[in-house]
Write a structure and sequence with these properties.
Helix content is about 65%, strand content about 5%. It is α/β, with parallel strands linked by helices. It folds into 2 domains: about 375 residues, no CATH class; about 140 residues, 2-Layer Sandwich (Transcription Regulator spoIIAA), CATH 3.30.750.24. The strands form 3 sheets. The chain has a 5-stranded mixed beta sheet, with helices on both faces. A two-stranded antiparallel ribbon has the order 1-2. A two-stranded antiparallel sheet has the order 4-5. Strand 6, helix 22 and strand 7 form a beta-alpha-beta unit. Helix 5 packs across helix 14, helix 7 packs antiparallel against helix 18 and helix 13 packs parallel to helix 15. The radius of gyration is 31 Å and the shape is elongated. It starts with a helix and ends with a helix.
């Protein structure tokens, strides 16, 4: 058990500290400070847009960022709140309140830990790319729509969570505050053009500094007749950050007839979605980072670290967290090469929370909206979607369906249906790769690698029919093969040879159909002979009781033996 646990949980921090030195610390310190500064506006924006507040966003970035760096399976992963969670968090708060969010996040943390212990880190990587692009683009559109209230300064409260209802509500109350729109456009332009001037200063940070300064000057010097008072800042809407909140348990207010177990059942789909999102985003981020720094992360350790972070953060009022690709790349680009950089990033955010709360409160809401609009643009994956539209195929339909389900309904439905659709399409493609053909008279050796003759055609005796299965013999093809064998028209041959030399595996459905075919053929006086059965497939047939249903001599290693056996059976029948 000790070695098994070591295989799934081996934090990179302890490995990198063995050969740590001052030069590495200097690089990590610089990267940690820079990525900490970059994370400030994002943590605040994600906290506010999720329906909680700036303090909760910063607390999440601090605690989750620290725990993910301490226990994670990647050297350079930076953890914290991300845009992917905004939609699901907002929906949970609307329906179940903050206590419901807390319970769902704790459940998600437990699921992530279990996934890591069960070595599911590699399995998560097989979530189809069109599904990931679809729900990521859907999240981007949803984030964009949630920022219209602050970007245009509409000043609306109780905005519906549903996408369609939200835009109807906007249309009915579209009263623009031109000061807010001006600050929003000013911030958006800085975010767009700052990377063209210099990539050392993040556009979001420059936008927040300059927009906050502009609003402070306007509020200080502009006359009241200009209507500056309508330009809202964080402190106008939220309590200012004053430190890490004390840990607390969720306060449950159950309705009549509702039990705690019922609430757990109701929250489980949301918790599963949070866990899946956290797993997918963190492992994608770690894989991208591996390609840049030439390292290999431990996916199971990473899942456990994500689970620990999401298990702890809710007790301090935080929200779900995961590995953040943009912050991780910022860390790498500025020289971070060990988890120490992530720890320093968390310390920088803690100092901001403790000593710069008043400055945080002066950030205009329209500026945060502009930052999140840029986040939504970066998440949209529009280039990938445009490429798929040019060459439409089944993947495009999976992407579009996942996208529209995310936007119109919710992320939980989108992920479930998207993965189901991708699985169905995978099975369809696999089934299309499996071919069944019927052979009469002779077999061409140029097409058959298990024939031992010197390019001489093998003659199929009269009264023998050969069926060849080329590909996996599973439930996707078993029923098709059964239909072919059941509805054979014309003369019924007394012997049927089923060539399985190209069958890599069989499943329980195929075993059941094969047993039914053998039984039906026996009742009709038809002999079934299996040819070219691979060793592991033969073992499966033995375990499934197929060999007991037929003469063991009728399971042949190749077509030569099968044809000789067929000739022998024909002589016995005659």
């Amino acid at each position: 058990m000790h070695y098994a646990l070591k295989d799934v949980f081996s934090p990179k921090l302890f490995q990198t500290l063995r050969h740590y030195n001052g030069r590495k610390f200097a690089q990590d310190a610089l990267a940690g400070i820079i990525v900490g500064i970059v994370a400030i506006p994002l943590a605040i924006a994600f906290g506010i847009s999720s329906g909680v507040g700036p303090t909760e966003g910063l607390v999440t970035a601090i605690i989750a960022g620290l725990l993910i760096s301490l226990f994670g399976g990647s050297k350079v992963q930076i953890g914290g709140p991300t845009g992917a969670f905004i939609v699901i968090i907002y929906g949970i708060i609307q329906q179940y309140g903050l206590s419901g969010l807390m319970i769902a996040t704790i459940m998600a943390g437990l699921l992530l830990i279990l996934m890591g212990l069960a070595r599911m880190g590699s399995v998560i990587k097989f979530v189809p790319y069109p599904v990931i692009v679809g729900f990521t683009a859907g999240i981007a559109v949803t984030i964009f729509s949630t920022q219209m209230n602050d970007f245009f300064g509409l000043g609306l409260s109780n905005v519906p969570a549903n996408f369609v209802d939200k835009w109807i509500y906007y249309a009915r109350h579209f009263d623009i505050n031109w000061w807010a729109l001006g600050i929003g456009m000013f911030s958006l332009m800085i975010c767009i053009f700052m990377p063209r001037i210099t990539k050392r200063i993040p556009g979001s940070l420059a936008a927040i500094v300059l927009a906050t300064l502009a609003v402070w000057l306007l509020r200080t010097w502009a006359p009241a007749s200009w209507g500056i008072a309508g330009l809202q800042t964080i402190s106008d809407l939220y309590a200012l950050p004053q430190g890490i909140p004390a840990p607390h348990m969720p306060s449950l207010e159950l309705t009549d007839g509702e039990s705690f177990f019922t609430l757990i059942q109701q929250l489980f789909p949301a918790a599963f979605t949070i866990a899946m999102l956290g797993a997918i985003e963190s492992l994608l981020s770690a894989m991208v980072a591996d390609g840049v720094i030439g390292d290999k992360h431990n996916s199971n350790t990473e899942l456990i670290a994500q689970g620990v972070a999401n298990l702890v953060v809710p007790f301090f009022g935080g929200i779900p967290a995961t590995g953040a690709i943009a912050r991780t790349m910022t860390n790498i680009n500025n020289g971070g090469r060990t988890p120490v950089a992530g720890i320093i990033h968390a310390v920088v955010l803690l100092l901001v929370l403790l000593f710069l709360g008043r400055l945080v409160g002066m950030i205009p809401m329209a500026c945060l909206a502009a930052v999140l609009i840029m986040v939504a643009y970066s998440m949209s994956g529009w280039k990938t979607i445009r490429g798929l539209i040019k060459h439409p195929n089944r993947d495009l339909w999976v992407l579009l369906i996942t996208f529209f389900l995310t936007v119109i309904f919710d992320l939980t439905v989108a992920i479930e249906v998207g993965i189901l659709l991708a699985l169905v399409l995978f099975l369809m493609r696999t089934s299309e790769q499996t071919h069944i053909r019927t052979l009469h008279k002779e077999i061409d050796p140029n097409e058959d690698t298990d024939i031992q003759s010197n390019l001489e055609h093998l003659i199929i005796p009269d009264g023998v029919e050969v069926y060849e299965i080329d590909g996996p013999y599973f439930f996707g093809i078993a029923n098709k093969f059964d239909d072919i064998m059941t509805h054979v028209s014309g003369e019924k041959y007394p012997i049927r040879i089923i060539r399985m030399r190209k069958v890599p595996f069989v499943d329980s459905t195929a075993m059941h159909n094969l047993s039914m075919l053998i039984q039906r053929s026996h009742n009709e006086g038809i002999t079934i002979i299996l040819s070219g059965v691979k060793e592991h497939v033969h073992h499966q047939l033995l375990k499934g009781g197929i060999e007991q249903m037929m003469n063991p001599e009728n399971i042949c290693p190749n077509i030569h033996v099968a044809l000789k056996r067929a000739q022998q059976v024909l002589e016995e029948k005659s």
